[in-house]
Amino acid sequence: MTISGDQSLLREINRMAIVRAVQQGAGLSRADLAKATGLTKSTVGLLVQDLIDSGWLCESDVQATGAIGRRPIPLGLDGRRLAMIGADVSLEGLSVLAVSLTGEVLEAASEPLPGRRPEDVLPRLAVLVADVVAKARSAGRWLLGVGVGVPGAVLDHQGTVKLAPNLGWRDYSFHAVFSAELAACGVADLPILVQNDYDVAVLGEYEFGEAPLPDPLIYLGLGVGVGAGVVVRGRLFLGADGFAGEVGHSILQVEGPVCSCGRRGCAEAFIGQRAVSTRISGRADDLLPVETIRQLLDRNDESAHLSVRRAGHYLGVLIQNLWTSFNPGRVVIGGPLCDLGPPLFDAAFSCLEGFSRDCSLPLPELRLARFGSRSIGMGAAALVKHVLTRPMDYRLCDR
Ligand SMILES: [Zn+2]
Predict the structure, then answer these.
(1) Distance from the alpha carbon of residue 62 to the mean position of ligand 1, in angstroms
(2) Rounded distance from Cα 250 to ligand 1 centre (Å)
(3) Rounded-to-integer distance, Cα 181 and Cα 123, Å
(4) DSSP label at 213?
(5) From the CA of 268, how far away is ligand 1's center (Å)?
(6) How far, in Å, is the centroid of ligand 1 from the Cα of 260?
């Protein structure tokens, strides 16, 4: 690991160490930051001034303490000047947000998916992103970059989509093509980052959550696909090939029902939208919209209740397996199936409580996704913040 001589990288590492320390403990003073980062007070003073000038940090009002002498000035992240663009490519449609450093949505645009082929999707996504970029800039925002969440495994931060089964994409150079499309729309000056949808969703929870943040943090997404994003020790955990978190394809029952991946008995074949749908309608080729399933539940349709409660039970089993695999500080549950509400979650909790009783251990904290249907767009914006504030990690591992 040799970085000597690269003064600009060293400076960036120190600047971003200060940003991360402020994020973990809003209200820290310059003296607190010197203690937290190990940098000298004079270095912290210079870097904090630079971060204030460039829109990352702001000074808050000094609290009256009654103490005599110069009072330390509390620092916080500045939500007023910088912004990130987050794009969500899903089977339901395209959605693009401009998001402040502190997680406030500034601009939003969306439209239905124009087809499933990349040559249909990427040009429209570029138009939407360019539109949101122009609006954010005309509102005076300085943009840091564009993040994109896609429903598939992404190999690396260069943005090759290894496999997106529900879109039918395989080994697709998303980053290269999208950069060219965006440049053709007049946006060629922003870094672009591409990552799996549930991997970015966990970053939305992590980067825009209240400190102190639980760690490990897991986002479990429930839709047609079932998958997880995992943050361990403050970093996205991707695995050797980017497949980490594909828990929808962990086996819950050997020789169980056939899954979309070809294996049998995967979690997705019990919990996913297609599994719930098939149990209700009796037809494997049928995919009932979540709204339809919810209406059936509201009408006390017995088959809908049985099917959703069964999915909920297996959801409990899947969370139990995540619990023992990661010992998470918090598990966040998101995705469209959350709209099914108590019939799904009551069954999951009662299953989990059983496991908890059996082994006499308290369950990890469980929460619903903070940003609901915007979890992936917010997460894609958070991906930009996550990467920029870890210049060491991403330079050494991914560039
Ligand atoms: Zn599977």
Answers:
(1) 55
(2) 7
(3) 6
(4) P
(5) 6
(6) 6
- Residue boundaries of the structural domains of the chain: 7-77, 82-202, 213-369
- Cα-to-centroid distance, 248 and ligand 1 (Å): 6
Name every residue whose Cβ is closer than 8 Å to that of residue 4 and which is 6 or more positions away in sequence.
none
Class of domain 82-202: alpha beta
**Assigned CATH class of 213-369:** alpha beta
**Is 158's pLDDT higher than 90?**
no
User: Would you give the DSSP letter of residue 377?
Assistant: H
**Fold entry, domain 7-77:** Arc Repressor Mutant, subunit A (1.10.10)
- The tens digit of pLDDT for each residue in 327-337 reads 999 999 999 99
Residue 338 Cα to ligand 1 midpoint, Å, equals: 21
State how far Cα 174 lies from the chain centre.
Answer: 19
Q: Which residues contact 8 (CB under 8 A, 6 or more apart)?
A: none
Q: Is the pLDDT of residue 349 over 50?
A: yes
Model pLDDT, residue 291: 96
Structure tokens at 234: 């403050």
From CA 377, how far away is CA 384, in angstroms rounded? 12
* DSSP letters for 141-208: PEEEEEEEEESSEE-STT--EEEETTTTEEEE-HHHHHHHHHHHTT--SS-EEEEEHHHHHHHHHHHT
Residue 397 CA, ligand 1 centroid: distance in Å: 29
Mean pLDDT computed over 147-173: 86
pLDDT tens for residues 24-75? 887 899 999 999 999 999 999 999 999 999 999 999 876 666 666 667 899 9
| Region 278-296 average pLDDT | 91
- Say how far apart CA 313 and CA 291 lie, in whole Å: 21
- Å from CA of 128 to ligand 1 middle: 33
Matching CATH topology for 82-202 and 213-369? yes
First and final CA of the chain: distance in angstroms?
Answer: 14
Taking the centre of ligand 1 as the mean of its atom positions, its distance from the CA of residue 225, in whole angstroms, is 9
**393-396 LR contacts (CB < 8 Å, sep 24+):** 393/235, 394/157, 395/9, 396/1
